[in-house]
Specification:
Blueprint lengths: L1 H9 L5 H11 L2 H14 L3 E2 L48 E2 L4 H10 L5 H13 L10 H11 L6 H11 L12 H10 L5 H12 L1 H5 L3 H8 L3 H12 L19 E2 L3 E6 L2 E5 L9 E2 L1 H10 L5 H41 L1 H6 L10 H8 L3 H8 L3 E4 L2 E4 L7 E3 L5 E3 H14 L8 H10 L6 H10 L12
Parallel strand pairs: 4-7
Antiparallel strand pairs: 1-6, 2-3, 4-5, 7-8, 9-10
Helix pairs in contact: 2-14, 4-5, 5-7, 8-9, 9-12, 13-14, 14-16, 16-17, 19-20
Length: 470
Amino acid sequence: MLKQGLELKQTQKLSPLQIQTIKLIELPIQELEQRIKKELEENPVLDDSPADDKDEDPDELKDLSLDALDDNDPIPSYRLKVNNYGKDERPTYNTFSVKESFTQSLMEQLGYRNLSKHQRDIAAFLIGSLDASGYLRRDIDSVVDDLAFRANIESSPEEVEAMLKVIQEFDPAGVGARNLQECLLLQLRAQNQVKEVRDAVEILENYFNEFSNRHFQKIISKLGLSEQEMKDAIARILKLNPAPGGQIDDSYNDQAQQIVPDFVLNVVDGELKLSMPRFSLPEIRVNKKYAAILADAQGSSERQQKEAATFVKQKLDSAKWFVEAIKQRHNTLESTMKAILDYQHDYFLDGDETNLKPMVLKDIAEITGFDISTISRVVNSKYIETHFGILPLKYFFSEGLENHAGEEVSTRELKKALRECVDAENKRKPLTDDQLVAEMSKRGYKVARRTIAKYRDQLDIPKARLRKEL
C-alpha cells in the first residue's frame, strides 16, 4: 500500500501555474515576447499601454507585488504590474542575423538582366528548381517537360540551357551547376586566370576521377607538372566551395531574423558577472476599466454586476498565473545558468575548450534541484553572449571518457586532441585510425579505434587514404 501511495503522489496533475511555467521555459526570448503579446490580446483584463497618471489616484493605484493579490480579498488590487526594465536606457545586444534567402538573392540578380518575359520565366523556374546546395539535379529535357506541364511554358532544350548559363554567371560562383565537377569549374573560371588556376581547370576537366582518388603522381606525369605546381593547383581547388547555395541560409522566411541571447556574461576583475536582458517585454498591468467593474460589484446584489465581476476575477486569476509564470521562468533560467557557470567556471573565464569539463543534464539537475526535463527545456534554443562569442547552451554539455590518469575528460577535448593529431600528421603518409589510437594514447587519452572513427566522422575528417597529399 505504501508503494501505491508513492506512485499516486508522483502522478499528481500539474497546476495551471506549473503548466504555464513549463510552456514559457521552453520559449526563447523572441517567442516569449510573442507569447506575451498573444496573452495581452486574449485577456482583456491585461493592458500594456502606458498608464495615464492624471486619471489615477496615486494612493489607490500604486504598484503592488503579486502577494497583494489575495484570493480571499473580494476586490483584488487594481493593478498587476511587472517592471521589466530599470531606470537606465535598455542596452543593445549582439545578435546573429540570418542571411537573405538564397532564392531571393538569385531572383534579384535576374532582375538586372536584359531578358524577354519568356526568358525570364524560364530562368525563374530554373532558380526555383535548384536544391539547397545550389545545384540543378534534373537534366535539361526533364526541365523542359516540367516547364510545359507545371508552368504551361513551351520551351526548348536550347532555351533552357541558355538560361542556365545565365544563372551560372550569378553570385555565389558555382550556382546552377549540375554536378560537383561543373560547380568547381564554374568557380575557377570566374577567377583571375593565373597559372595555378589554369592548371586546376585542366585537372578538373580532364582528370577529375584521378584527382578524386588522390592519384596525384599520375596527374603530374600526364600534365608534365612539377610537384610544386601540382601543390599550387590543389591548394586552389581546396579553397573552392562544393555547396555554394549553403552560403545563404534559406531555412528562414524572414530576411533578418535574429537570435537574441537570453544571458549576457561579462568577466570583471576575474569574476563572472551574469545578466539576463529582458528584451522587448512589455509592461503588464490590469486594465482600469475591468478594475472598475470589480469596484462597482463590491457589495452589489445585482446579478449582472456579479457575473461581470466573476468574469473579471477569472481573467485576473489567469493574468496572475501568467505573470507569476514569467517570474518563475526567469528564476529557473537564472538558477540553471548560474549552475552551468559554476560547473564550467574555468572555461568561461577564457573560452579555452580544454577547460570544458564533461557535463550532462543530470549534473545540473542535481545542483539546482530541478527535474532533468526542466533543465532540458531551459537549455533548448537558449543562447549566452560571452566575451568569446554567442553560444547555444547545448554547447556546454558533453559526455566524457577517462584518460590514462583516471580523470574524466570531455568528448570535446578528445575531439580537439584528435584534430591536432591529424593536423600534425605527415600528409604524404596520413595516420590510419589504428595509428591515431596510438597517437591519442601518447597524449594520455584512452580511446578505442571505433571511437576514433566516430569522432573523425563527426569532425568531417576523411579516412587516411583521402587525406593523402603531395
